[in-house]
Amino acid sequence: MMTGDTPAARHETAIGENFPAELERTLLELRWEVHEDPELSFQEYRTARRLEAALAGLGIADVRRVGDTGVLARVPGRDLSAPVVAIRGDIDALPIEERTGLPQASSVPGVMHACGHDVHATWAVGAAALLLANPAAGDVVIILQPGEEQGNGALKMIEGGALDGVKMIFGGHVDRRFAVGQVVADVGPLAASTDSFQVVINGRGAHAARPHESLDPIVGAAAVVTALQQVVSRHLNPADAGVVTVGMINAGSAPNIIPESATLRGTLRAIQPATRKLLRTEFVRVVDGVCAAHGLTPTITFDDGTPPVINEERSVAHARTAVTNLLGAEALVPLGILNLAGEDFAHYLERVPGCFLRIGAREAGGAVIPAHSPLFHAADESVLVGAAVLAESARLASAELAAAGEGRAG
Asked: Which of 365, 362, 384 is nearest to 180 (CA)?
């Protein structure tokens, strides 16, 4: 056990005051059952059944499926007319072979919870248990969401009514850059938009020995990749954040053939809406111009990814108060970086205000391990900290919304 008056030790305050021994044991068993039996996005059938059973076992009457693998539960508040708040946990795993060596490692070849969604699902169930024992002013909706890794699971839950009547939402992500007991609750951007692109560069094929008879799409593709590096460095204000990355190049069928076409695929990342628009505009201008110079014709398509995660000040204030109440003010730490990874919690935040947390998951003496690594795992204690902080955030938000006269929507 941890000792001393530090955030890493004081997380035990939240555990001791909020979690009976039986509930703690039940949650940790659930976490490792989910971890050992991971399922990819929109294939989370066994996971959904486990989570449904866990919520029903707590005594929650209102538990239902959204689509095939999403789960919604409604924890009753003290006042039927009070505003509704939501807590979200994601549940899908990644196509990665686990190499943690843990006794509870994945039993599914090539699939593991390398992003902590086993913990996120479990702490959402834990928050439900805490809210049953000490209800919020209004109802709290527990959203157990599939398909976060594909970036569109949140949209499917929203289409299924997950945000109906909801006034504010909270969620979080484990992070081994931070010790257990440390929590990031920052105002403003916490993750980036994640648009993707495909460029098919069409030329004219020929024999590799007679390149003058071709319009070579591979040479054009190389020039496009090089020119795209100037979109950020020469067209974006250095004070703004943006990324243009070509992650795939596909062309050709044999070494002695100049092909008809080459295909580029990649991602555009931004924090601000204006930057997101600029990246697309400059991307098209560069690709069109370079291809024209080589006599080539490009076909450009964009797929909208997740929007940026922007934490709203009012919601963050509730989360920060929750952390302070449970762990002490010193538990609050800044993210310390500008994160250009994506997170589909942003879809909820486009519709209602909310706060997305980073919750420390590194055990005492443990290494910093990045998410999406085959070595990634989160400390058990992070389950309990996340559950307690999210439940308390929901209580504080519900009370403040009720006091402000923001009753149940609809």
From this structure: 362
Look over the chain and give the mean of its residue pLDDT values, rounded to a whole number.
95
Q: Which amino acid is at 70?
A: G
Strand (E) or helix (H) holding 244: strand 242-251
CA atoms within 13 Å, Cβ hemisphere of 23: 23
Q: Are 33 and 120 in contact (CB under 8 A)?
A: no
Low-confidence stretches of the chain (pLDDT < 70) are 1-16, 407-410
pTM of the predicted protein model: 0.91
Question: Which are the contacts of 321, defined by CB distance < 8 A and separation ≥ 6?
Answer: 396
- CA gap 397, 146 in Å, rounded: 25
The candidate with the shortest Cα–Cα distance to 76, out of 162, 143, 135, 126, is: 135
**Token output for 64:** 């239902």
- How far the first Cα of the chain sits from its last, in Å, is 48
Q: Which pLDDT tens digit goes with each residue over 150-203? A: 999 999 999 999 999 999 999 999 999 999 999 999 999 999 999 999 999 999
